[in-house]
């Protein structure tokens, strides 16, 4: 039998296979964490840090796409600290990479990084 770890994400208990990232664990319980650089077909890099989450008892924010779930973790995906950090990260990314994306994004799958960035701007209330 595979080793399982049990943790809480947004006060929801979840058990996942050892080695599962926090991002993947959150997805199993339909908790959405914003991402920009993460893609299932690429190696984990955690470069953009848009997926940061807060762990109870820790001062550091963790990149959910790169940190494996561990027994007893208590993760908060939508804390004020995580939301503020995401907003600052997105503002920094946008300041270096101006976007040329239409303001209206149609519903559906968004694969374009500029489009995903635009969606993150709207969700975090960041202006460019």
TrEMBL record:
GO terms for molecular function: iron-sulfur cluster binding. CDD domains: fer2. Residues 3-81 form the 2Fe-2S ferredoxin-type domain. InterPro entries: 2Fe-2S_ferredoxin-like_sf, 2Fe-2S_ferredoxin-type. It comes from the Bacteria. This is Periplasmic [Fe] hydrogenase large subunit.
């Amino acid at each position: 039998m595979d080793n399982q770890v049990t943790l809480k994400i947004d006060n929801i208990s979840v058990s996942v296979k050892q080695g599962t990232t926090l991002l993947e664990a959150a997805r199993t319980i339909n908790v959405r964490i914003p991402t920009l650089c993460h893609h299932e077909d690429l190696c984990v890099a955690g470069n953009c840090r848009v997926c940061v989450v807060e762990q109870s008892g820790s001062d550091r924010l963790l990149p959910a796409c790169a940190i494996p779930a561990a027994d007893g973790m208590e993760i908060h995906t939508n804390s004020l600290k995580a939301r503020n950090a995401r907003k600052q990260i997105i503002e920094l990314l946008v300041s270096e990479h101006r976007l040329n994306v239409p303001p209206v994004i149609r519903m559906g799958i968004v694969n374009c990084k500029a489009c995903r960035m635009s969606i993150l701007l709207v969700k975090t209330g960041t202006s460019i």
